[in-house]
Specification:
The chain is α+β, with helices and mostly antiparallel strands. Among the domains are: 260-306 and 568-600; 312-565, Dipeptide-binding Protein, Domain 3 (Dipeptide-binding Protein, domain 3, Roll). It contains 18 helices and 25 strands. It has a 4-stranded mixed beta sheet. A 4-stranded antiparallel beta sheet has the order 5-6-8-7, covered by helices on one side.
Length: 600
């Protein structure tokens, strides 16, 4: 008996030493970024769906712009909207009622080492592409290699961290990792699976208007380049009975029409050519919905709350420019922006002021003093913060709403004086160089231009010259990617589980490397170290502490002039379009709607 126990122990030790951490991982139905997934192995559907929603009908959507490609995974071209969502699938499905948990889809089971040094995906043998071909381990490996080498920047960045990828059998794939990036196993779980056989004799990196067979619930049946895309629900969709798909993708057809501008798209809604509109214009929301269908209730208007951090819409200082290199200059300009006047006179008091990078969530530092865990992290990363940021008492400056708050303008002049600027002859000039304070703000929409012209008047009152330059979307995007601007508007969207994308947003490498979203040009070792702590967090409290410290560091750097956010999603829908009573953390999602006329 002793010999047999000894042999068993030696076998176990040998397995662990030889990469057999698999011996301490078991196939499970789901994984979470922190802790365990909320739903049990026998769950039947996600909480934010109606599992009994009827199938049928047509959903018509409108997009402003154009498209010239049906390949959403490459850098070239303008990809058509919703192609990835409706026709392709990741290995695992995200539950939008949790911060970051994944459940079985193409991979019906998953094994993840406790130290996250490997993840093994067990593919569902029933999984099929739209052309009937089975999804195998080779398709997964092909997808990983192709996106790593030829995909978008985020795919290349993440997938290059994999140490080794191998097929254990036809339906099992193992990725070996170094364990340093705790989010990477889940990022791999979200990897889209591409058909290797389709690209055997076709180039991956070229734009195409020929549909690529994915494994998703829809196939593309009509393509009018730049004008229209029609999706039809697959009757033979392999995953229709999975718990992660029940109650979702209910419309038989989804038609997406492209319009030249937002007003044309809105007129299409009024005529009944569009079923749902997510409104982004406060003035239109307040004044333009006074037409018969909206008055008599055939068109419903709703403000849908979300439980995510509010988007950070901001005018971004390019700190690569000498003019904005001084933190005091950047803070000074915050006092010249009169949000209260703009909200009242331009936006019908519909917006709320944005103060930080995770507003409206538990990850925000606004109104929260740093706790013990956060203060320890602060010391570890070498963060030096003023008490107003440590205690969470800082707020974006509020005005008297007059459009010319003298108290705020005086404070701006005081801060500029500390940075070496003086008013001389009615102009703000640098006392040593004599350089006038003038800069250009790049905009691409009428709303941005209107807001910029309002700010221009306030700046003129203290001798600062702001030049507002409106450019088309192509030029705006090009200049943004190359950091070719003094100041520009941008909106960042954060989740309740921030991770690797924060390096892409704020990491020091982005100060010089084109193509990141570090548009302010932040290069702060404390920010880098805090992001590392964020991605290395093993528990939810650790992640929360790191996110709040990151918020404090970014807020205290005055890298952007924070603007405003809506109190929720502004949604207009025709009455036949229904949605579940319980909505996800993300609010209203078209993937869970249904047509009330279906099945009659």
């Amino acid at each position: 008996m002793l010999v047999s126990w000894t042999l068993a122990l030696l076998t176990l030790l040998a397995a662990v030493a030889g990469g057999g951490a698999r011996a301490v991982a078991e196939p499970v139905h789901g994984i979470a970024m922190h802790g365990s997934p909320a739903l049990p192995a026998d769950f039947t559907h996600f909480p934010h769906v109606n599992p009994d929603a009827p199938k049928g009908g047509t959903l018509r959507l409108a997009i402003t712009g154009s498209f010239d490609s049906l390949n959403p995974f490459i850098i070239k071209g303008s990809p058509a909207w919703h192609v990835r969502l409706l026709t392709f699938e990741p290995l695992m499905a995200r539950n939008h009622s949790e911060p970051f948990s994944l459940y079985g889809l193409i991979a019906e089971k998953v094994e993840m080492a406790p130290d996250r040094t490997f993840i093994i995906f067990h593919l569902n043998p029933k999984a099929r592409f739209a052309d009937g071909r089975s999804i195998t381990a080779e398709d997964v490996l092909f997808s990983w290699r192709t996106l790593r080498d030829h995909g978008r920047l985020n795919h290349r960045t993440y997938y290059r961290k994999v140490l080794k990828a191998e097929a254990l059998d036809e339906h099992t794939v193992k990725f070996t990792l170094d364990g340093k990036d705790r989010e990477l196993p889940l990022i791999l779980g979200l990897m889209p699976v591409l058909p290797a056989h389709h690209f055997a004799d076709r180039p991956f990196e070229k734009t195409t208007l020929k549909p690529i067979p994915g494994s998703g619930p829809y196939r593309i049946t009509e393509v009018k380049p730049g004008q229209r895309l029609v999706f039809e629900r697959r009757k033979d969709y392999w995953g229709k009975d999975l718990p992660t798909r029940r109650g979702m993708f209910n419309h038989d057809r989804i038609i997406i029409d492209y319009y030249r501008d937002t007003q044309a798209a809105f007129e299409a809604l009024k005529k009944g050519l569009v079923d749902i509109r997510f409104e982004a214009d406060a003035t239109r929301w307040a004044t333009a919905y006074d037409f018969p269908a909206a008055r008599d209730g055939r068109l419903k208007r709703e403000v849908i709350p979300t439980r995510l951090p509010k988007p950070l819409a901001a005018f971004v200082f390019n700190t690569r420019r000498a003019l904005f290199a001084d933190r005091r200059v950047r803070e000074a300009l915050l006092f010249t922006f009169d949000f209260e006047w703009a909200n009242s006179n331009l936006f019908h008091n519909l917006y709320r002021r944005t103060h930080g990078y995770f507003d409206g969530s538990e990850l925000s530092s606004i109104g929260r003093p740093a706790d013990v865990m956060e203060r320890q992290l602060m010391q570890r990363v070498g963060a030096r913060l003023q008490p107003r940021f440590v205690e969470g008492t800082w707020r974006a400056p509020a005005s008297d709403g007059s459009g010319r708050d003298r108290r705020n303008l005086r404070r701006a002049v005081q801060l500029l004086a500390q940075a070496g600027w003086r008013i001389s002859g009615g102009r703000m000039v640098h006392e040593k160089t004599g350089r006038p304070f003038d800069f250009e703000l790049l905009v691409q929409s009428s709303e941005q231009e209107k807001l910029a012209l309002h700010w221009q008047k306030s700046l003129r009152a203290i001798g600062i010259s702001l030049r507002v330059r409106r450019v088309d979307s192509a030029q705006f995007t090009r200049r943004l990617l190359n950091y070719d601007y003094d100041m520009a508007p941008y909106t960042w969207f954060n989740s309740l589980s921030p991770g690797n994308e924060q390096k892409f947003y704020w990491g020091s490498a982005g100060r010089k490397q084109p193509g990141t979203r570090n548009y302010p040009g932040i290069a702060d070792p404390a920010v880098d170290a805090t992001i590392e702590a964020l991605t290395a967090a093993r528990t939810r409290p650790e992640l929360t502490a790191a996110a709040r410290l990151l918020d404090r560091l970014l807020v205290s750097g005055f890298y952007v002039l924070p603007l405003y956010h809506a109190p929720g999603q502004w949604v207009a829908r025709w009455q036949h379009v229904k949605h579940p009573q319980t909505l996800s953390l993300y609010g209203y999602q078209t993937t869970t709607t249904w047509d009330a006329r279906a099945g009659r």
